[in-house]
Write a structure and sequence with these properties.
Elements lengths: L3 E5 L3 H11 L5 E5 L4 H4 L5 E5 L7 H13 L3 E5 L15 H7 L4 E2 L4 H12 L8 E6 L5 E6 L4 E5 L11 E7 L4 E6 L4 E5 H8 L5 E3 L2 E6 L2 H14 L4 H8 L3 H8 L7 H11 L3 H5 L3
Parallel strand pairs: 1-2, 1-3, 3-4, 4-5
Antiparallel strand pairs: 6-7, 7-8, 8-13, 9-10, 10-11, 12-13
Length: 285
């Protein structure tokens, strides 16, 4: 059964716009009136909340987003475009919405396609069990794994009893990227399952899972410090980085201070704006 995206709106034009953007996704779309949202929330739903609906003021919108977040639902928010002569009526909560719905806040008509693409990715329930990228870390004796759900993990070598710590001669993703085979210069081959990495990618302590030792989460404070270091090396202020990425400067400040760990998609936007590969941001000195 395909995941369902609920368009929470009472405006036909909004429904038409988002149905067109999501039409080729293979997802099941339905429309829910804002007043009936609470009764419709079930596990597995993805939501697009129309903040331009007359139902929502700041408090009502935060209540709806907060309830969806508490239930573990993937939620996007489409804010009404701010008038040319003033600020949006949701200006006071935009930064909080960015924290609650990372990468899923649409502020301009041009954001619809971007948010739709993010929803398509997050609707894929198996994405956490697939590798997006697996490489030798810029740091010694580590592998760097990026998974389809945006999580990242560092795998400390040796990763198994078969790993003799010889040089990695090749890495091949197999089985719809659910497994990866490491070919070592010694001739040994090691298979790593993405599901094993996913089991530990969100943990803060080192663990042994499904035959892989030393996989740990990327530390938010270290990541923030590395991002700040690279930004300064590129001669960019936080304000300029915010302008290039469309991410609010206070949100960038929270990332650099280690108070918020961004999604892989947000991290990629920041790295591109700085002018470095994402892997360089994920590395540390």
């Amino acid at each position: 059964m395909s995941p369902t995206i609920s368009l929470v709106t009472d405006r036909p034009a909004f429904e038409t716009t988002w149905r067109e953007a999501l039409g080729s996704s293979g997802l099941t779309l339905r429309t829910v009136h804002p007043n009936g949202l609470a009764a419709e929330l079930t596990p597995g739903l993805l939501l697009v909340l129309d903040a331009g609906s007359s139902t929502y003021d700041e408090d009502e919108l935060l209540t709806a987003v907060g309830l969806a977040k508490a239930l573990g639902l993937v939620t996007a928010v489409a804010l009404p475009e701010a008038p040319a002569d003033g600020a949006s009526r949701f200006a006071g909560i935009e930064e909080l919405l960015e924290d609650l719905c990372p990468g899923l806040v649409a502020k301009l008509p041009t954001d619809v396609a971007r948010v739709s693409n993010v929803l398509r990715r997050r609707a894929d329930r198996g994405r956490a069990n697939r590798f997006e990228y697996l490489t030798v870390s810029p740091r010694p004796s580590e592998l760097l794994a990026l998974l389809g759900d945006g999580s990242a993990a560092l795998l400390t070598r040796p990763i198994s009893e078969e790993d003799d710590n010889s040089e990695v001669a090749g890495i091949a993703l197999e089985g719809d990227a659910q497994t990866a085979t490491l070919r070592l210069s010694s001739g040994h081959q090691i298979t790593i399952r993405a599901s094993a990495v996913a089991n530990v990618a969100g943990q803060s302590t080192h663990a042994a899972t499904n035959g892989i030792d030393g996989a740990g989460a990327v530390d938010g404070a270290r990541l923030g410090a590395r991002l700040r270091e690279l930004r300064l090396a590129a001669g960019l202020t936080q304000a300029e980085l915010a302008r290039r990425t469309g991410i609010h400067r206070p949100n960038i400040a929270r990332v650099e201070a280690g108070r918020h760990t961004p999604s892989l998609e947000t991290l990629a936007r920041l790295a591109t704006a700085i002018g470095v590969p994402t892997t360089v941001v994920l590395s540390a000195k």
